[in-house]
């Protein structure tokens, strides 16, 4: 091959330039497209719901009337394995007691640790504003329709808490005596 070196170099450069041209054109097209369409993350996110993870459940319970109020404090009675619930309008009262389950002492101890962990998480959720006392019509709470206790009142209650993005029931109240409620809270039941 007697071709002079400058001709070979020029041919190599020309073929390299031709080979990279379509790639540059495609990358330019891609860049213009991404610049024109904003990424999904920058699109406005809906505001956080005031009931957090309990958004659907609270609204489902309130479909026939009732009220959802923020729990302000949960006191843990670790000796009796029950909670004392406080809300914006006063005290809701004590929860029913939990019972230890298990055939052996070790199984009961494991159950005890689980209960105490759940109680601590509930107290923490209440102090962070992630717990609600929901008074609802008995007919919309299927888990409370059949149970022991006074069922003469059409109102029942549940305490719900957002634990790490999951809505968990804390305790149930079989019957709510409307006459014992704060007058303002009683008025909210009819709204």
Overview of this protein structure:
The structure is a single chain. This protein has helices at 5-36, 55-61, 105-127, 142-145, 183-188; strands spanning 66-77, 82-87, 90-94, 131-137, 155-163, 166-173. With 191 residues, it is of the alpha+beta class. A six-stranded antiparallel β-sheet has the order 3-2-1-4-5-6. Strand 5 and strand 6 (166-173) form a beta hairpin. The N and C termini lie far apart (97 Å).
Total DSSP helices: 5
- Please count the beta strands (DSSP E, at least 2 residues each): 6
Helix content: 25-40%
Q: What is the C-alpha radius of gyration, as a whole number of Å?
A: 31 Å
- The shape is extended
Stretches where pLDDT is under 50 for at least 5 consecutive residues are none
Mean pLDDT: 81
Order of strands, widest sheet: 3-2-1-4-5-6
Structural class of the secondary structure composition?
alpha+beta
Query: What order do the SSEs take from the amino end to the carboxyl end, as H and E?
Result: HHEEEHEHEEH
User: What percent strand?
Assistant: 15-25%
């Amino acid at each position: 091959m007697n071709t002079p070196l400058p001709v070979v170099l020029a041919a190599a450069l020309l073929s390299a330039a031709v080979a990279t041209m379509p790639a540059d054109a495609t990358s330019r097209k891609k860049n213009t497209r991404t610049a024109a369409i904003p990424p999904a993350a920058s699109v406005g996110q809906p505001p956080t719901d005031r009931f957090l993870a309990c958004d659907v459940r609270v609204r489902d319970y309130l479909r026939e009337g009732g009220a959802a109020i923020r729990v302000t404090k949960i006191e843990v009675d670790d000796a009796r394995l029950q909670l004392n619930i406080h809300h914006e309008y006063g005290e809701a009262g004590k929860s029913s007691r939990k019972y230890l389950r298990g055939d052996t002492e070790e199984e009961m101890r494991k159950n005890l640790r689980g209960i105490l962990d759940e109680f601590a998480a509930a107290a923490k959720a209440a102090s962070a504003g992630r717990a609600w006392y929901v008074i609802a019509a008995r007919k919309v709470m299927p888990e409370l329709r059949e149970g022991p206790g006074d069922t003469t009142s059409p109102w029942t209650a549940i305490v719900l808490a957002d634990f790490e993005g999951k809505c968990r029931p804390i305790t149930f109240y079989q019957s709510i005596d409307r006459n014992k409620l704060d007058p303002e809270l009683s008025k909210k039941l009819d709204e």
